[in-house]
Specification:
Blueprint: H1 9-12, E1 20-25, H2 27-30, H3 40-54, E2 59-64, H4 82-106, E3 111-115, E4 124-125, H5 128-136, E5 140-144, H6 154-164, E6 169-174, E7 179-180, E8 192-193, E9 195-196, H7 198-204, H8 211-219, E10 224-228, H9 234-239, E11 246-248
Parallel strand pairs: 1-2, 1-6, 2-5, 3-4, 3-5, 6-10, 9-11
Antiparallel strand pairs: 7-8, 10-11
């Protein structure tokens, strides 16, 4: 695939609000609406958006889920051990990470996959200083295998890695354009929020990220932006401070 043209120096410095971001992509974003494991058109569109943001000299870290491949014990047979199911899910995130890496590198963006579980034949083990070095050199870094421990979600992994790399913003890319008071796919009268506090999310038990991730971001003062990653131009608009999605801060 032909690489996208690089931005000019003027375009790179224009109206950028966030200089380093963590993008959390759920596994469901990778999968197609018909139940396919991979929707390559969607993944290519997301890769285009990431490349566009990278051209603004923004450091990009990514954490991927694995819901399109395996969702812990919910995907396994009855009675499956929770720890085994969690490890299977972690390995599923590595598959998604390699897929996304390939799409990004087809677009000329140098990318590294770092895993919390060592799989040296296909990815680097996660070392914070090495991740910092990759980011400083303009490489996108995909953090796979969650935290490397069972019982912790990829949402928590995203909050943890965002803190470790000094991200200015944690973006959760979903198929919905923000946070609603109830599921907008089931309720026509669902109301979307523009802004919320961390405490609002925890008190109302809004389905944004798990409570551990929300509390972690609150303690480390990392704002969370929930947006529809499948809508072209949304990520660019968010990085430049445009009004998009729901901001939790």
């Amino acid at each position: 695939m032909e690489s996208l043209p690089r931005k000019t120096a003027k375009e790179k410095t224009a109206t950028v609000r966030y200089r380093r971001v963590m993008l959390k992509l759920s596994g469901e974003v990778f999968g197609g609406p018909g139940g396919a494991v991979f929707d390559y058109e969607v993944i290519q569109s997301i890769a285009d958006q990431i490349r566009e943001v990278s051209d603004l000299n923004v450091g990009i870290g990514l954490v991927v889920g694995a819901g399109n491949i395996f969702r812990g014990t919910r995907s396994g047979p009855p009675g499956m051990d929770r720890i085994n199911g969690d490890y299977m899910g972690m390995l599923g995130t590595v598959i998604n990470a390699i897929c996304l890496q390939d799409m990004l590198e087809q677009r000329g963006l140098d990318t590294r996959v770092m895993t919390a579980i060592e799989i040296r034949a296909i990815a680097e083990p996660y070392i914070r200083r090495r991740a910092e070095r990759h980011l400083s050199k303009g490489r996108a870094v995909i953090f796979a295998a969650g935290t490397g421990h069972p019982f912790f979600t990829t949402d928590t992994a995203a909050a943890l890695r965002a803190s470790e790399i000094g991200a200015d913003l944690l973006i959760k890319g979903t198929r919905v354009d923000g946070i609603y008071d109830k599921d907008p796919e089931l309720h026509d009268d669902a109301v979307r929020y523009d802004k919320l506090s961390y405490q609002d999310v925890l008190r109302q038990a809004l389905r944004v990220m798990d409570t551990t991730a929300i509390a972690f971001c609150k303690d480390n003062k990392i704002p969370i932006l929930v947006l529809n990653i499948e809508k072209k131009g949304t990520l660019y608009k968010a990085i430049c401070g445009g009004k998009v999605g729901t901001l939790v801060s």
